[in-house]
Amino acid sequence: MDADLRSRFIEGMSRVASAVTVVTTDGDAGRFGVTVSSMTSVSADTAKPSLLISVHHLSPACEALRRNQRFCANVLGGNQSFVSDLFSGRLKHLNEDRFGAIKWHRGATGAPVVDGAVVSLDCVLKTALMWGTHIIFVGEVEQIELSTQRSPLVYANRGYRRAVPIAPEDHQAQGADNQLRVGFFITLGPELVPALIADFANMEPSVDLRLLEADHDDLVEQMRAGSIETAITFGSVEDPGLSAELLCAPDPHILVAGDHPLARKSRLSLADIADQPMILLDHPSVRRANAALFERHGLKSTIRLQSPAFAMVRGMVAQGLGYSIVPQKPHTKTGPDGKPIVAVSLDADFPEAAIMALTKNSDQRGPLVEAFLEKCRTHFMRK
Q1: Which residues, other chains included, contact 175 with Cβ-Cβ below 8 Å and sequence gap of 6+?
Q2: Taking a C-beta distance cutoff of 8 angstroms, is the pair 359, 243 a contact?
């Protein structure tokens, strides 16, 4: 095979998100389990539903699956990465008794059903096909167990992820005259949103206001999908169907611990901090914005720690573990534990730090969106 084609295929497939499944079997050939990422339905409309799994031919589970003629595909929940690591062989010290390390019970076919899996599909093996280095097993489902856990464990970009809805589940009819669905960038909430919402609620007390906090990219997708009517976020968007209005110009600041040597400065440049350890708020849009900021100045940040939770970032900054960049001057000057944080103005061009209102184009906006935008304009003007 073309080596470059193979490596690009492997890299490409690493970016494809897939549910994590532990395939188990038990019978005359013994009890085995193996973690796979290739499990999919074949048909729901045959005599019994069918699915397929793919297992490397050198896996000890392969021969057991073939001889036992049964298997259970256990789709793991978002809190079961331990189970995935266990049956992928990463936890060597538990290899002798993997099933003793988890809770499980027997299914209809006798195959082990992993407790807490999102769904377990207990199957009778119908056919097996060798293809390259893997054996494809097709089974017919005898029994299905569904748990209360609905968020599966996901593997993508060579790491575990948890599948959660971008927008909250909402079973009420959308589009009511008094309903307004608004998205906010996730860090705007604690300091800016409550007062804004209070102002708007006082002005429009009958409005049914639905709020979504998410990263910039997710907000844009929800705007495109029509799940929200407007979003307050950082940065702009290139989409002919969306309009972006500036609410607040960039005002970037560097957050450092109260006793940090840089805390005594009145202004800082990127060159002052480039070699210092950085605490990154780990969201895709923030990562891109920070990378662009440093690249424009021919510099590169030194990321020491990262977290998707802004409270965690502030806490680590307050402990003196590094600095963080915020797009606007913060109101709060302490970490979650009360330790002082100092915000020093950053002397750098940072257009991604502007607070923007995203809406549909003006001819598609309803009166509630217009009213909310007007309230945002006055609110951020006061800020």
Answers
A1: none
A2: yes
